[in-house]
Design brief:
The protein has helices at 20-26, 29-36, 73-86, 104-110, 128-133, 150-161, 209-227, and strands at residues 10-16, 40-46, 59-61, 69-71, 91-101, 115-120, 137-140, 194-195, 198-199. It is α/β, with parallel strands linked by helices. The strands form three sheets. A five-stranded parallel beta sheet has the order 2-1-6-5-7, with helices on both faces. A two-stranded antiparallel ribbon has the order 3-4. Strands 8-9 form a two-stranded antiparallel ribbon. Bound molecules: adenine. Adenine (ADE) binds at residues 95-97, 121, 140-142, 144-146, 149, 152.
Amino acid sequence: MVPLYKFYKMRFDIITVLPELLESPLNHSIMQRARDKGLLDVHLHQLRDYATGKHRQVDDYQFGGGAGMVMKPEPIAACLDKLLAERQYDEIIYTTPDGVKLDQSVCNQLSLKNNLIVLCGHYKGVDDRIRQKYVTMEISIGDYVLSGGELAAAVLVDSVGRLIPGVLNDETSALFDSFQDNLLAPPVYTRPAVWNGMPVPDILLSGHEKNIEDWRHDQAVERTKARRPDLF
Ligand code: ADE
C-alpha cells in the first residue's frame, strides 16, 4: 500500500533579492531529505529578474523623505502575477518585523497548506501597496530586526517543512517537540550512562515505558514552569 503522505506535497515559492542566502539551509539535513523524498518543493525567484531598465533596480527612495530605500512595487507585482497565473496559492506571506509572531501553532496551520509564496523584505520594506493588494499573511520571527527577510523565510520553511507527514523519519517525533502541547521538551540523554561522574536518571534505564512517559511529562511541566511560565 502506498503511504498516505505520498500524496501530500508542499510547495514554497520564495521571492528574494538574495537567493544565495537561502540555498544552504534548504540544501542540507532534513530540508534536503524532504526535497529528495518529493514532499517539499522550494523554488527561489530572483526579484531582479523581474525588474526592468539597465540597472534592474528593485528599490527606490521613500516618498516624503527619510533614510533608507523602499522595494519598488512593479518587479514584485510582475513576479507575483506570473506565479498566480500558474497555480492557486493558499497564502502570500511577507516576512517583516511588524508581522504576526511565528509560533508552533502558526507552523502547524501552515503545514496543512499546499502552495505558499514567501516575499522577503529588504531595506525599509516593500511599498505598502504590495501589502494591500497581494499579501495575505505577514510573519515576524521575533522582536528584532534582521538585515532582510531571507533568514526569516529559511526559518519558516524549516519549521513548517519538517511538519509535513513523512519528512521526519519517526513520524511521531514532531508531535513530541517543544511547544506542540504548550510544554517545553523534557531533558534527553544518550550513552555513556555515566559521564564525568554524572549518571543518567535511573528511570530512563528501567525499561518501564509507562513510568518513563510519566517522568518525561513531569519534567516537561517542571521545565515549562521554570523557564516559560507564560506558556501555561
Ligand atoms: N525582516 C527583518 N526582520 C524580520 C523579522 N524579525 N522577522 C521577519 N522578517 C524580518
